[in-house]
Amino acid sequence: MTDMKRRDFLKLTGAGAAAGTLGLAGAALPGAAGAARRAPLVVLDRPADLPRPKGQRVVVVGGGWSGLTIAKYLKKEDPKLDVVLIERRALFLSCPVSNLWLADLIDLEFIAHSYLDAARHNGYLFLNATVVDVDRDSRRVYTDQGHLRYDFLVLAPGIDYDYEAIGVTDPAERFHLQTNYPAGFIPGSEHLSIRNKLEDFEGGTFLLTVPSGNYRCLPGPYERACMVASWFKREGIKGKVLLLDANPDITIKKDGFHAAFDELYKGIIEYVPSFEITGVDPYRRKVRSEFAEVDFDDGAIYPRVRGARLIEMLGLVDPKSPQKEARIDVRFYNVIGDRRVYVAGDSRPMPFSKSGNTANSEGKFVAKIVAARANGRDVREWQSPHTVCYSMVNADPMEAISVDAYYAYNPKDGSFRFDRVKLFEQRSPDRGQATLEWARGLYRDMFG
Ligand SMILES: Cc1cc2nc3c(=O)[nH]c(=O)nc-3n(C[C@H](O)[C@H](O)[C@H](O)COP(=O)(O)OP(=O)(O)OC[C@H]3O[C@@H](n4cnc5c(N)ncnc54)[C@H](O)[C@@H]3O)c2cc1C
Predict the structure, then answer these.
(1) Which of 10, 192, 217, 424 to mutate to test the pocket of ligand 1 (most atoms within 8 A of CB)?
(2) Residue 90 CB: number of other CB atoms within 10 A?
(3) How far from each other are the two terminal CA atoms of the chain, in whole angstroms?
(4) 217 pocket-lining for ligand 1 (C-beta < 6 Å)
(5) What is the CA 216 to chain-centroid distance, rounded?
(6) Which ranges constitute the DSSP H helices of 307-414?
(7) Do domains 51-158+308-383+431-448 and 161-304 have the same CATH topology?
């Protein structure tokens, strides 16, 4: 959609849509005529209630691992920048190490953090709002709390799920699936639901799945299988974890995970590679591939992932990206042809690991680029993100495996590959402790 068409869309449909989602007193229902119809437009068309900018304003959309890092490091790079972080959630809940919480190895407090602390400690504004549109001509961001102007805009809205890619196209089916067997790869209620399911689970087949493509957190589903199996062991549950993997083998740290499956969870984890889901019957609890149909009793079904819908709504999707990620300069993150708008984190099109550490290290570089450009300078040298990823495979004692990697850029064809990869696939208690230290360090970095 062009900017112009999107604007019109917002105005024409705003009344019905906003009346439903915002629950505005006196707002018109779809189809009603007259003055009441205008109410939601007033909400969208007033400035957000924010202090006046004290310098050039950088608006960062998305308070995940990417946006939190960028907001903080923009202020570090140039304290004169007026930074606003917009996030639709009121509370930060971490995906990384959430699998440990599922197995009761850490408290919820370990993974829950306050956006207000992050803003207070780092001198930026936190706006708890949902972004619904951006007008790049007037440099304006529209939210459900009003609009605001930007000098620079960074979009870091993460991922959305692509249920169609696993053959779930009917909305009723999708809602049933998402409500009853949530993937747990987008932070929030999904994790809490999975934990509640485990607490209620009395036995049978607990299904976990691994999608194909560049999905969020490559080792995450395998770590989760280990943690769920450790819960079964600890609680004496007579169940099996069925791990259906769309890929021909474990996608990362494969020796370490295979060793854990064989040595720690024999008879509990059943690993099935090359099972690409082509359909799900969430009512009868069945998943299908081209070759087989499998029953399950409970579980968490991870569909394929795509760039966050916001990127598509804003007309920024790269038409060549199969996962609907953004079309940006792959070295310096600005939208092609617009050096005032940037996309970072898991919505990026580069084949980097979609991980928190990657987003955090990349975020520092993006902050450097934006701050330099805001001051009339430029950054000419590309800097690789850093992927560090620990996976807990044993609960008692806590033992983990890990990977540490960078990326190399090939200017001839614009491609990337892994570089300086170090794999630590022998599980150990030291790495178990390092997992917790890593998470504490990163939370300190984003919130402290
Ligand atoms: C179970 C699990 C385990 C993981 N383990 C690890 C690990 O051990 N190590 C590691 O490095 N990584 C791990 N990851 C991956 C990591 O969580 C992600 O890669 C990381 O969160 C990506 O950061 P992001 O900022 O791009 O996206 P997110 O963290 O998802 O943040 C995006 C934010 O944007 C907000 N947003 C979206 N649209 C809008 C809008 N329209 N308006 C306002 N706000 C909006 C969302 O609410 C969200 O808060 C794990 C992930 C999962 C799910």
Answers:
(1) 217
(2) 11
(3) 40
(4) yes
(5) 7
(6) 309-313, 356-374
(7) yes
Q: Percent of the chain scored above 90 by pLDDT?
A: 89
Which amino acid is present at 60? Answer: V
DSSP state of 290: S
Structure tokens at 164: 């169609």
What are the sequence ranges of the domains in the chain? 1-45, 51-158+308-383+431-448, 161-304
CA–centroid distance, residue 279 to ligand 1 (Å): 26
Q: Is 271 helix (H, G, I), strand (E, B) or coil?
A: strand
Q: Is residue 96 lining ligand 1, measured as CB closer than 6 Å?
A: yes
Contact (Cβ atoms closer than 8 angstroms) between residue 28 and residue 43: no
CA 158 / ligand 1 centre spacing (Å): 5
Name the DSSP class of 52: P
- Other Cβ atoms less than 10 A from the Cβ of 172: the count is 9
242 CA distance to ligand 1 middle (Å):
25
Q: For the domain covering 51-158+308-383+431-448, report its CATH number.
A: 3.50.50.60
Q: Is the pLDDT of residue 222 over 60?
A: yes
Tokens encoding 111: 């993974």
- Let me know: does 288 contact 298? Beta carbons within 8 Å: no
Contact 269, 261 (CB under 8 A): yes
Which SS3 state, helix, strand or coil, does residue 284 take? coil
Q: H-helix or E-strand containing 342?
A: strand 338-343
Which pLDDT belongs to residue 45? Answer: 79
Residue 299 bridge partners (DSSP):
207
Mean pLDDT of the chain: 91
* H or E stretch covering 117: helix 115-122
Distance 64 CA to ligand 1 centre (A): 5
Task: State the distance from the centre of ligand 1 to the C-alpha of 65, rounded, in angstroms.
Answer: 6
Q: Considering only CA atoms, which residue is closest to atom 15 of ligand 1?
A: 355
Classify 123 in phi/psi space as left (phi over 0), alpha (psi -120 to 50) or beta.
left
- Total residues belonging to the chain: 448
Distance from C-alpha of 132 to C-alpha of 343, rounded to nearest angstrom: 16
Structure tokens at 215: 């999905």
- State the Cα–Cα distance between residues 89 and 129, nearest whole angstrom: 8
Cβ of residue 425 lying under 6 Å from some atom of ligand 1: no
Query: What confidence tier does 20 reach under pLDDT thresholds 50, 70, 90?
Result: very low
Please state which CATH class domain 161-304 belongs to.
alpha beta
